[in-house]
Specification:
This protein has twelve helices and 19 strands. By secondary structure, the protein is of the alpha+beta class. Strand 10 and strand 11 form a beta hairpin. Helix 9 crosses helix 12.
């Protein structure tokens, strides 16, 4: 008997919710089959079978909250060998007339089979069109997405363990144009460090004045996390504005060459990540964390990049961003943004962040007050670049301006440090050449 336990869920995550069982008690399972789907506030964890056998027990129902190492169910491996023998008679009885005839004449092979009344009466056409049925193994998320987009899972190549079709496989199939995509309202394209397309709203029944939808486990966890951030921190926000002329001019000169030579799309986000990292070195309290009555100063920067996905807000991080150059940062941002779009983020991607940048500007936000990604103590909010008249050396000029916001935990970051941090980011962005001098 093999025990099925809740696997490690990632840093600081000790519990999850049983979202959906993929197998019933008594079902045959093979290595790689998804048995159950667990949801945390960050990702969906699919628990696979590690051995062949029969699922004999499901110890938790859908909706139950479970902790790491809790027992989910049991697999009886001894039943695996007996299963094919039990299935053999059924397969024999369901065989075509030709196969049955060959079986009956096996004891006298010298006699060629000849048409018999029974054989002639057999309605062969009813058997001929019956296709060979192959079991399609897919994750719950993949099944839901395939149903929404009218994709035949049998046409999708599974890249998961044991050939299991994942949500990312279905997304890739849809992107390749092999299946019709669902209609949705126009939304901004995916932006690294900002947000991909917004989740499509469910269709509203004709004539309905209001509809009710149960909150998903992940949405509830996100809500709990945000409330915890508001209640557990002394939340405060300071603002500034940045003249983006220098960065935009630099990008205009080099972005095509960078993309051609390095395959990297150079957005404004890598510049902000670089500037934020350098400012964090000057003001390390903004990159710190409270642990009881101690302040933990991080001497590295794992830069969280807030991304809106179909499942909700996720914050993958670029590890050791402070030790990387602009191109490496751009490449890593593109990589985590793609993984977020494709549903391939891992717990390693989503944990360990020390500071976060969120970009509401890709949706047109002009100004906002971002909520801290607890237990982090600082988050930088970026917004829409908008041409505005500004006073330059006594003259009014039109410049591409961006409002920026720093939300911070006032328990360990003084207002002076917060303001000076944001001013340092502004200085670096308005003169990007200074980022070359460390």
């Amino acid at each position: 008997m093999t025990s099925i336990k809740v696997p490690p869920l990632g840093e600081s995550i000790v519990e999850a919710t049983v979202s959906r069982w993929m197998k019933k008690e008594g079902d045959q399972v093979s290595p790689g089959d998804t048995l159950v789907e667990l949801e945390t506030d960050k990702i969906t964890v699919e628990v696979p079978a590690m051995s062949r056998g029969v699922l004999t027990k499901r110890l938790h129902a859908e909706g139950d909250v479970v902790k790491v190492d809790d027992l989910l169910g049991e697999i009886d491996e001894s039943a695996a060998a007996a299963a094919p023998k039990r299935e053999a008679p059924a397969a024999s009885s369901a065989a075509t007339p030709q196969r049955a005839s060959a079986s009956s004449t096996a004891s006298s092979p010298a006699q060629p089979p000849s048409p018999s009344p029974a054989k002639a009466a057999a309605p062969a056409p009813t058997k001929a069109p019956e296709p060979a049925k192959t079991e399609v193994r897919a994750s719950p998320a993949a099944e839901r997405l395939a149903a929404q987009q009218n994709i035949d899972l049998a046409s999708v190549s599974g890249t998961g363990r044991g050939g299991v079709v994942s949500k990312a496989d279905v997304i890739e199939q849809s992107h390749d144009g092999l299946a019709p995509a669902p209609a949705r309202s126009p939304t901004p394209p995916a932006q690294p460090g900002g947000a991909p397309h917004a989740p499509t709203s469910p269709p509203v029944p004709a004539g309905a004045r209001e509809t009710r939808e149960k909150m998903s486990t992940r949405r509830k966890r996100i809500a709990e996390h945000l409330l915890e951030s508001q209640h557990a921190t002394a939340h405060l926000t300071t603002f500034n504005e940045i003249d983006m002329s220098a960065v935009e001019a630099l990008r205009a000169r080099i972005k095509e060459r960078i993309e051609k030579e390095h395959g990297v799309k150079l957005s404004v986000m890598p510049f902000f990540v670089k500037a934020a990292c350098m400012a964090l070195k000057a003001y390390p309290a903004v990159n710190a964390q409270l642990d009881g009555d101690s302040i933990v100063y991080h001497h590295y920067v794992n830069m969280g990049i807030a991304v809106a996905s179909d499942a909700g807000l996720v914050v993958p991080s670029v590890k050791d961003a402070d030790r990387k150059g602009l191109l490496d940062i751009a490449r890593d941002i593109g990589a985590v943004a793609k993984k977020a779009r494709d549903g391939k983020l891992t717990m390693e991607d989503l944990t360990g962040g020390t500071f976060t940048i969120t970009n509401g500007g890709v949706f047109g936000s002009l100004v906002s007050t971002p909520i801290l990604n607890y237990p982090q103590v600082g988050i930088l909010g970026l917004h829409k670049i908008q041409e505005r008249p500004v006073a330059i050396a006594g003259k009014v000029e039109i410049r591409p301006m961006m409002y920026v916001a720093l939300s911070y935990d006032h328990r360990i970051i003084d207002g002076q440090q917060a303001v000076l941090y944001l001013v340092r980011v502004k200085e670096l962005m308005e003169d990007p050449a200074t980022m070359l001098v460390e």
